[in-house]
Amino acid sequence: MKGLIKLLSNNPKALFGCSILFIFIFMAVFAPLITGHVPNKRTGKPHEYPAAVVKMAQASPDGWVAQNLADDKRKMLMSKKAEHVLGTTRMGRDVWAQVAYGARVSLAVGFGAGIVVCFLATVVGISAGYFGGRVDDILSAAMNIMLVIPQYPLLFVLAAFIGEAGPLTIALIIGMTSWAWGARVIRAQTMSLREKEFVKAAEVLGESRIRIIFIEILPNLISIVGASFIGSVSYAIVTEATISFLGLGDPGTISWGIMLYNVQTSSAILIGAWWELLAPCLALSTLAIGLSMLNFAVDEIANPQLRANKGMKRWEKMAKKDKESRAPHVAVPSFVGAEDLAGGEK
Amino acid sequence: MGFFLRRLSFYFIALLFAATLNFIIPRAMPGDPVTMMFANATSQVTPERIAAMKELLGFVDGPLYEQFFIYIKSVLTWELGTSVQFYPLSVNSVLGNAFGWSLFLAGSAVLLSFTLGSVLGIFAAWRRGSKFDTIFSPGMLAVQSVPQVVIAMLLMFTFAIGLGWFPTGNAYTPGLTPDWTSWTFIKDVAYHAVLPLIAASIVQVGGFLINMRNNMINLLAEDYITMAKGKGLSENRVVFNYAARNAMLPSVTALSMALGMAIGGQMIVEIIFNYPGLGTVLLNAINARDYQVLQGQLLVMTLFMLFFNLLADMLYVVLDPRLRKGA
Q1: Residue in B129, B145, B271 nearest the CB of A288
Q2: A120: left (phi over 0), alpha (psi -120 to 50) or beta
Q3: Domain residue spans in chain B?
Q4: What number does CATH give the domain B91-326?
Q5: How far is A86 from chain B (nearest CA, A)?
Q6: Coil, strand or helix: which one is A327?
Q7: pLDDT by residue (tens digit) across B31-74?
Q8: Most confident segment among A150-164, A220-234, B248-262
Q9: Helix B245-265 vs helix B291-319: angle between axes, to the nearest 10 degrees?
Q10: Cross-strand partners of A249
């Protein structure tokens, strides 16, 4: 735990990603506490403005907000109580409540699909990499075939044939169709690990294969499995939103994708209900960006070469200070100029 | 040549697998497609009509393996049947029409994002740790992770509906006769393509940028770069002629793969901007329960992906002499 905190405080990207993820988890878990409205019932008038806009427009009727955002006088009168934080939809449902409850579906689908992907990728990848031979041939062929079949069309067609797919179904079909990439990476890493001395030593000692896989190899794959997990979670969240947006999901659930679907079908854009569009868009992109930062951080922790050269800068500063503190009169002799070298090349 | 033969046979197997999947999906679902298709129909449907429809759509009665062989045959002879939605039109002509637009959009989007991403990536790697690098590399990656639905919807809302700068749909003004020799038509197409193009390419820039940056960083540690710097070559020359040229290799093959992926990946953009590509056709086919078009669609997209993967393989061999030995 202490190590984790230190890691987070040293890596701003990881800190950023983790905070966003935790905010959304908090939002999903405590959704009933942070909003007073239910997401799927009419709790206000159609297309009420967000509370902040209403209050600002009421405070200064000639201000920028009133002129540019709250342009429709009639709607402003209707929503003068300003009790909807992010306004309401065409159906008079509270947008903030939908965002908060929608986080549940998005996170559940994301993590559900992520776990399925991770599990399949790890099992297939390690088996192919460790056992080699015919097992590897078959599993690699399966991976490569999965990789060349276009994901989105396949998912859409599957969802369409299943019909009004619920979140669980969507998570499952995403999980079943997108494990190939992670499996390929894990396979490659397993193959290189298999040749390491400590694995050879375990083999010579007569350890069982199961033990070697779980005790010797798997712990060394954690960073890759973790990166593939985070990647899959974010992919699944976006894909769920896309599937629901297209109207292939179950319209009864509350999710960010369904919110976008409603925006599209109720032509909220044409009316100018920007808050109804902006809310799910912001939620989706913030979560996706947070997850990708987390993934970026995991990458950097696993592969220090990719880090921006902050460490070297500190070293350079120290070296400079060190140089300054020493006798300044010793000039560094330059025997070989750059010109000489270039000339020598010719 | 052995390398190619192996890849070709793999692609053939992959195609067969995709076709099998195509065959299984509609048959594994509850209810058969034709009955489902008529489930919403208001007019009275006689069993004869259903039977006639089934025959027309290629759903042959008979044991499963027989159906399978007939299906595979229809795939190999490229007779994908008739569209239900656009009744007299064949699936081939429906898809063929859409394919051109998709290819146009995907091609320009990939080229645009590749150029932009590679150039930015080169600078990010060369000035690693600079302000440019620390802002742009994670920044573009963050943009890349924003869902395409969100980007397309926001672009649509802001620039097409809010500001009214660009059209809200279609590939050219309806009513205009497609004529690729007339300058006004080309201008019109370009004007309609602006927003979809931005939406489709903005999410890809980050990938190319990071790809290029990481390749460059690995290469910059090589001795020949130190040597080039040491002998006093200009910075531009070291960056572009020595490092970038070699760092480009993996990116070029990634470019080909990206083209294959783009056709499937940009579907959502096409749908939102109502661009007459494969994505729009797919959604319409789903809504109209036009199973023949759906199946053909998946097949075409797979073929496209396979083709560009093959191209990537070939590029590998052309660009990297070490692979040229073959088996």
Answers
A1: B145
A2: alpha
A3: 91-326
A4: 1.10.3720.10
A5: 17
A6: coil
A7: 565 666 666 555 566 777 677 666 666 666 667 777 777 777 77
A8: A220-234
A9: 180
A10: A165
Tokens found for residue A211:
């033990």
Backbone phi and psi for residue A329, each to the nearest 5 degrees, phi listed first: -80, -10
Considering only CB atoms, A234 lies closest to which of B133, B145, B264, namely B145
Q: List CB contacts (< 8 A) between B292 and chain A.
A: none
- CA of B47 to nearest chain A CA: how many angstroms apart? 23
pTM for the model stands at: 0.80
- Contact between chains at B154 and A281 (C-beta distance less than 8 A): yes
**Mutation for A interface: B149, B211, B229, B283, most A CBs within 10 A:** B149
**N-terminal to C-terminal alpha carbon distance within chain A:** 59
Nearest chain B Cα to A290, which residue? Answer: B142
Distance in Å, alpha carbon of B179 to nearest chain A alpha carbon: 31
Look at residues A129, A119, A226, A134 and name the one whose alpha carbon lies nearest to residue A178.
A119
ipTM of the prediction: 0.78
Rounded to a whole number, what is the distance in Å from the CA of A315 to chain B's nearest CA? 14
Q: What is the pLDDT of residues B172-207, one digit of tens each?
A: 777 666 666 777 777 777 778 888 888 888 888 888
The three-class DSSP label of residue A165 is strand
- Kindly state the greatest CA–CA separation across chain A: 83
In a 13 Å sphere around the CA of A91, the CA atoms on its Cβ side amount to: 14
Residue B101 dihedral angles phi and psi, to the nearest 5° = -65, -40
Residue B99 CA neighbour count, 13 Å, CB half: 17
Contact at CB, A148 and B306, closer than 8 angstroms: yes
Question: What DSSP letter does each residue of B25-42 carry, written as one string?
Answer: HHHHSSS-HHHHHHHT--
Mutual angle of helices A151-162 and A167-177, in 10-degree steps: 140
Is residue A120 over pLDDT 90? yes
Test A277 with B154 for CB contact under 8 angstroms. Answer: yes
pLDDT at A330 over 50: no
User: For residue range A305-325, what is the model confidence (pLDDT) as tens digits?
Assistant: 555 555 555 566 667 777 776
Q: Which residues contact B120 (CB under 8 A, 6 or more apart)?
A: B136, B140, B205, B209, B212
> Whose CA is closest to A247, among B286, B297, B146, B41?
B286
